Every structure is written in C-alpha cells, then in structure tokens.
Amino acid sequence: MTTDPLLELEGITKRFGEVVANDDISFSVDRGEVHALLGENGAGKSTLMNILYGLYSPSSGTIRLNGDPQTFEAPKDAIDAGIGMVHQHFMLIPRMTVLENIVLGEREHTATGDGIVDRFKRIFGRDRAGPRERLSELAEQYGLAVDPSEKVWELDVGEQQRVEILKALYRDIDLLILDEPTAVLTPTESEQLFETISTLVDEGLTVIFITHKLWEIERLADRVTVLRNGKRIETVETDGVSRSDLAEMMVGREVLFDIDKARVPTGETVLSASGLQARDDRGLEAIAGVDLTVEASEIVGIAGVSGNGQRELAECLIGYRPLEAGQIELDGKNLTGAAPRTIIDSGVSFIPEDRYAHGCAEELSVMHNAGVKIYRNGELDSSRLFLDYDGLESYADKLVDRFDVRGVTDVNRTPAGTLSGGNLQKLILGRELSRAPRLLVANQPTRGVDVGAIEHIREQLVEQQQDGTGVVLISEDLDEILDLSDRVLVMYDGEFVHETTPAETNKWELGVYMSTGAAPAADDQLISEAQ
Amino acid sequence: MIPEVTVTNREDVPQWLSYGAPLGTILAALLVASVPLLWLNINPIWVYWELFVSQPTTVSGFADVVRTALPLFFAGLAVYLPLKAGLWNIGAEGQLFVGAVVGAAIALHVELPSLLLIPLMLVAAGIAGALYGAIPGYLRAEHDVNEIISSLMLTFTATTFTGYLLRGPLQGSSGQSATDRLPDAAQLPSVLTPRLHVGVGLIVVVALASYILLNHTRLGYEIVFIGSNPAAATQAGISTYKIYITVFVLGGLLAGIAGIVEVAGVHGRLFEDFSPGYGFTAVAVALLGRNGVGQVLLAALFFGVLTAGGTTIAVTQNVPSALIDVIVALTILFLLTAEFVKDHRINIAWRGSDPEAASQTGGSP
Predict the structure, then answer these.
(1) DSSP annotation of A416
(2) Does any domain span residue A162?
(3) Nearest residue in chain B measured CA to CA from A355
(4) Could you tell me if B233 lies within 8 Å of chain A, comparing CB atoms?
(5) Which residue of B has its CA nearest to A344?
(6) What mean pLDDT comes out for the span A319-331?
(7) Which one of A479, A508, A524, B336 has the minimum C-beta count within 10 Å?
(8) Do A190 and A323 reside in the same domain of the chain?
(9) Nearest Cα residue in chain B from A353
(10) What is the count of structural domains for chain A?
C-alpha cells in the first residue's frame, strides 16, 4: 500500500507542570483520508489537536507537514500552513453576519490606486463583493448552503457549524480538524455533517475527526488513532476492527454495550405532574402544559433536541424554577410550589444538565460537594447547629471509593472543579443516588462523558431503578433512551408530542419526532423501511 | 534584548503562594511608599522601624494597636461574612454609626449600674446594627437589589443622620456637634493599662465564635457553599434568601457593637468623626484576610499598627500623617495585584535582538 502522509507527528510530548497530557505520540495522517482520533475524556485528544493548531507548543517532538518540520507559535501560523480547526464550542460572533464572521481577521481591500482615497480604503476599507463571491463559490463547491447576510444568532446549531467549516475553508486549508463535531447536533444534522465531510474529502481535503462515539468512526473514518492516558495505543484501519475492539483499546478493558436490564414490574405512582407550564430565563414560554407520571421502578425517557423545554421541566420538578401553572404530586403529597429543600427532603434527587454550573461548587473541595445533600439530615451530627467535618470527610472518602471517582488526592483539598467531566459526574451521581431517592431527575447524565464513565453511570441508573426509584431520564442520546427506558416521551417545543416504548419505535422515528414535532410522512416511512 | 511577558492562568495555586502573595504585596507597597518618604528627606527604614518595631513593642503602643484593631476586626468581619456568601457589604461604616448612636443614647438616658448598663448598651447597639445591616441583605434576597450600592448609600444615610442628631436631640451642653460625656457607669473600664479597655476581651470571643461558625456549623457550610456557587446551592436545597439576610444581620451586629465599644471605650462621648473610616478600611481588612477568620484578625492588627503607630509618629516625629494614609492606600492597591499574581503564572523571557526573533513576535496581529 502506498502512503502519502500529509501530516506526521513524531514524539509529541506536552507537559503541564507534572501532568503529562501527551506522552511521546507519533502517527501520520495520509492525504485525503478521514482520520479519527478516539479516546476518553482527558486522554489528550484536544491537547494534541491544540498543539497541531498552534494554541499550545509541544514540550518536545516534531510536527511535519508535507515532510517539512513546522513550528507553530500561534493559530495564525497553523492556518498559514494550511490547517483549519472547528472547535467544539463555536468561535463565532453572534451579532455579526455569516460573511463578516468568515472574513474576520482576513480583511483585505482590492483598491490598488495611489490616491488618498484608495490608500484609506486599503487601511480601513473592507471589500464586500470579492469575499461574498468567493464564499458562494466555496459553498457551492462543498455543498454547504448558508445565507452570507444572515446574522449568526439567527442560525441553528447545524448551520453555525457549517459557517465554522466555511470559515476554515475560506483560508485555503488542506487539513481540517473537527473537535467532537456531533456533540451538539441532532441525528439528522449529524447525517448532513457526514455527507459534508465526504464531499470535503472528495474535493481533496484531509480531515481529522475527534470523537468518543464509536459508531461515527465506523460510519466515517478510514483510519483511527486511539489515545489513552496521553499515550497513543494504536492506529488501525477501521475496516478490520470491531466496535468492541475499539472500546477496549480506548478504555483499556472490556466494555459492555448492552446494559443488562432485567425488566422489573413497576410499582405505585411516585410522581404525578399535570398541566405544568413555565417560562425560560428570558421569560418566554418554555413548557406549555405537560403531564408526566412516573411509577416506582420505572425509567421514563424524555427524548428531544436540547432547548425544547427539557431543562426547564427538570428544574420545575425539583422546585428550582417557578411554575406558571400546574400541579406536582410526589407519593400523593402535593408539592406544587414547594421549595427545593422540601422537595429534596421528600426524596427527589437531581442530576443537572450543566454539572459545573449547577451540579457543584467548583472552588470547594470534593468533600463539600459530596456532602451537600446529607449535611443536614442528622446522619453526621444530630444537633441542628453543628456539622461533623471529620464524619463528612470519611463519608466523602467512601463515596469517592464506591463510585470510582478518579483524580481525587485528598477529598478535603481537591477542588471539585478540577475533576474531569466524567469523574465529576460520578461524584454527583454518587451523592444523589446514595440517598436512595424516591424519584431521580437526570438531565443529560452522560453527555460529554467518556465511554467508561457512561457505562458506569448507566449501570448505576438501572441499579437504582431496580431498587424501586422512579427515574426521569432526559437525554439527546437516542441509544441511551432506547436502552434504558421503559417508556419514551418526545419533547418538542415545550410539549410532549409522542409517547411510545422502546420496543415499538426506533431511532429514526424518534429523530423525526424530535426534529419536526410530528410523525414521519407516510412515504418517508416506506423509504426508511426499504433501507 | 526585548522582554517578552507571557501571562497564563494557573491551574492550581500552590500553598505557599496563597499565603505568600498578601505578604509579598505588603512588602511591595512599603517599597513604593518609601519613594515619597525619601523625597521628603525622611529615612523610610527609620519610619518602618518605628512603625512596625519600636512603637508596637512598648506597652502603650501595643495597647494602642489592639484598641485600634478592635473596630477594624469587627467591621472587617462585617465585610468578611457576607463576602463568604458572595456578597459585598460596603456599609459596615453605617452599621457602626447606628450602633454607636443607639448605644450612646441608651447610655445617656438610662440610669443603671455599670454591670447592667454596659451589656444593655452592647446588646442594643448590636441589634441596631443588625437591623440596619438587614436592610441591604433583605433587599438583595427579596428583590435582587445590588447590595454594594444599597449598603453604601445606607452608610451615607447613617452618618448624615448621626450628624443631625448630634446637632439636635443628642447635642450636649458644649454646643459642639457632640453628645455630653457618657456617665461613668457607661464608660468601659480599663484593663492592664489606662489605654486599654475591657472591650478587647470581645476580640477573643468574636474570633472564636466566627471561626466555629464558619468551620464547624451547618450554617457556615451553607454560607460557604452559596458563596461558591449560588445556583448549585439553591438546587441542593440551601436557601439563598435565608443566608443572604443572615450574613448581613451577623455583619451588622458586629459592626454595631464595634461602634458603641469605640464610643464607650475610647472617646467617652459620641461625636461626628469618632470613626476614622473604620468601616471602609474594613473592606481592605476583609480582602487581605480573605483566607480565614484568623487572617482577618491579623489584617486588622496590621492596619491597627499602621493607624495607631502612624498617629504617634505624626505627632511626635513630624512625619505628615497623610503619608500614613499613602501607605494604607498603597497596601490596598497592591492587594488587588496579589489576587492576580496568585491566579496567574507570569513569565518574562528575554529574547535575543536578532531580527528574526523580533519579527516573529512583532509579526502576529
């Protein structure tokens, strides 16, 4: 096999103090391939790509592009060398138009005269017609339809990502790095992205694709490099490798994909909410009359594209967000309008969507964060006034141990904010589950978490259900919804538009409900079945 | 040679730095303060020696320091406790005034033996300060009114209203804007030396109580958690409403007590300028000592040294007292940098003067 390496990394090492984020990583990327970079959170994928993009400089090692060694002092150098990157969090300015965002930093004016007006034009002016023409050429060439004069804030997430890709392409790149591009997309949008990537490769680009979703690699990549704990484990052709092999390389041990979920009979009604209405932070209607019942030992999955009222619903259920209308009963007790404290004391646990902003106090120790749901229940100190910090410390130690929270040197010293996403989530999960709640409201419990932690978290959720807890599972991950739920509801624009069970539905159908709020059209159904 | 300064965020702050930074900034402030001293032909080493060694080691000098540190410590805690919950109490001065007025009014109008009168004054002054502090706390908790502005404005209200009272209902027979001398029963007795009053015993009590509150109680846990992330705290069932009011009440209580102790222990009467801005210096005290109650006490003693020693030097050695204010101001100013130095890693690299390197740094926009 002839190889034509576009990019070669040789012995890249990056240290942050004593932490080795990348340890002697070498691999090469061939011209015209889609090369996936797979690894758990904290495996060093993003660090490596930030080195490649000139955001960090490596402690040692060489980057070669077309055989020539490169030193990138800043992203500008990487861009000049033909490397573009689309970050997970978009770097766009919402108030500006698509075109303005794309030409940002590339202002040029074609005026050539020596007259004073032309000179001023070159210094201060911005050529509008030229870039617009070039942008529409690019958009056509790569099949990325966007309206150049639309403001970025008016675009949906998929369109914003297209703008990011166009922004990179506008700078004449050969190599495009995509950092977890599907994390924010719906299944339909992801599918569009994959088509775009195929077009890019057909047009001669090379793509590096960071992910921890295994099926995306099978779907898209030619080769995959697996990183674990900052080291390169292997680079393999995707054709000859199975999903479980990849998972094992990534995690370092065998991973179970199918959660062993014995169906337990559901019990009495735990949560009964009716006619819930609430507003979002901007004061707009976010949930518009929602009914929800959850029985003991039942997992109710709520699928939906985020921003359709799921977060507000979850916050209403725990009393954090005021209700405009409706009623909430827990075990037959009316908790409408109750304070979060009352609801917690009635046995409701909560896993928030944003674990750093809402799930923990980042500067405080793991101990402080582990104890926030039990510090006042009398377990640690029976007086109402005092708190036994030694007891709290050993409680936190046990929790860290039992829920496999890694990265904690001293529960009393390690700030919760320094834990990786997956480990913080395990800490929050441990804190919420060890109280044996009646109802668990889990909003996106595994989003942005690596495969090993996902497995752990899902197992814990199921175990909790078997023990009689009713679970509201809000997720965008349809595999998760279908694997774990007993009943599935689809949320769209603040309402439940569809109710079904995992046995009666499939990802495609849920995806259509999620993105349109309505049932698939009959002829689409036929196409889907034919596939 | 071109210096290239790069500033990056520290991922974690080493232990030595979190304690060393405030100390280092004080030294830096003293270094800069020596410039005007030198300009006035005053030997800075001599001034600092007098200020930090000679004066505080005499009995009367030490008594002055402790006596001055008391209102600074109490008012410092009045800022520090809300700060722990993430709020800024800029109104300690006002709460101090309210406590002084109410305590002085009781001293002048209630006839009781000392053993009953003094506790009554302290309690009444504390309650008055607490209620006055509760206003910005309540406005923040209930209506989300910015507590920095409300507490500051209420300070002006309190000091101005005190001025009115001292020229009206509370005016003494001297005709100045001051009360009569408080009756002997209301004067705090002195201990050890005539310059020290029994009130200083309160320093130990308050320091211990505050330490226990923050480190061993449920309430302290809730205060610290809210201070770190109010949204997470609320979702965990901690009521910001309750805590916001509580910290302001506790702060006002301490500031109010400090007010009457200053009047009954030091001046013997209430007059308009009885506080040289203790409640404002308190903000600096709380910031300097933000790592714990013990550090707040140390910071109060430090400012006590500056204020008490400064007055003595100004009087006896003819050093302009404004220069002492300069040192205090520079310390506060440098404190702001301490926070930055602590959280950032600053590297200075000297680049060679070869044109290639120079163009590389200069080239990027």
Answers:
(1) G
(2) no
(3) B232
(4) yes
(5) B237
(6) 94
(7) B336
(8) no
(9) B232
(10) 4
Does the distance separating the beta carbons of B233 and A372 come in below 8 Å?
A: yes
Name the residue facing A357 among B231, B239, B364 (closest C-beta).
B231
pLDDT digits (tens, 9 = 90+) for A412-443: 888 998 888 888 999 999 999 998 899 999 99
Partner A contacted by B231 (CB < 8 A): yes
Residue A84, strand partner residues: A176
Is B300 in the A-facing interface, judged by CB distances under 8 Å?
no
pLDDT (average), residues B86-92: 95
- Owner of token pair 């509201």: A472
Range of the domain at A208: 5-82+173-251
**Which of A417, A434, A451 is the last residue before a domain boundary?**
A434
Cα of B351 to nearest chain A Cα, Å: 15
A183 and A281 together in one domain: no
Residues of B in contact with A74 (CB under 8 A): 364
Task: Please check whether residue A341 touches B, CB under 8 A.
Answer: yes
Q: Number of A to B CB contacts under 8 A, please give it.
A: 80
By Cβ distance, the residue of A105, A340, A363 closest to B234 is A340
Q: Which of B13, B213, B235 to mutate to test the interface with A (most CBs of A within 10 A)?
A: B235
Judge if A444 and A521 occupy the same domain.
yes
3-state SS of A227-271 is EECCEEEEEEEHHHCCHHHHHHHHHCCCCCCCCCCCCCCCCCEEE
**Bridge pairing between strands A34-39 and A223-228:** parallel
Q: Which token pair is B208?
A: 């211990």
Label residue B154 by pLDDT band (50, 70, 90). very high
Which tokens sit at A107?
């202002």
Q: Give the Cα separation of A187 and A207 in Å (integer).
A: 20
Instruction: Tell me the CATH number at A184.
Output: 3.40.50.300
Given CA atoms A321, A326, A328, A334 in this order, what sign does their dihedral have?
Answer: positive
State both tokens at A401: 């141990």
Same domain membership, residue A521 and residue A441: yes
Q: Which of A144-153, A470-479, B321-330 has the highest mean pLDDT?
A: A470-479
The verdict on B224 touching A (C-beta cutoff 8 Å) is: yes
The structure tokens listed for A178 are 């995509």
* ipTM confidence: 0.80
Closest CA to A354 of A408, A311, A298: A311
Q: Where are the domains of chain B?
A: 68-305
Of A344, A364, A386, nearest to B224 by CB-CB distance is A364
- Among A189, A217, A251, where does a domain finish? A251
Q: Which residues on chain A are in Cβ contact (under 8 Å) with B220?
A: 387
A418 contacts in chain B (CB < 8 Å): 11-12
Statement to judge: residues A73 and A201 lie in one domain: yes
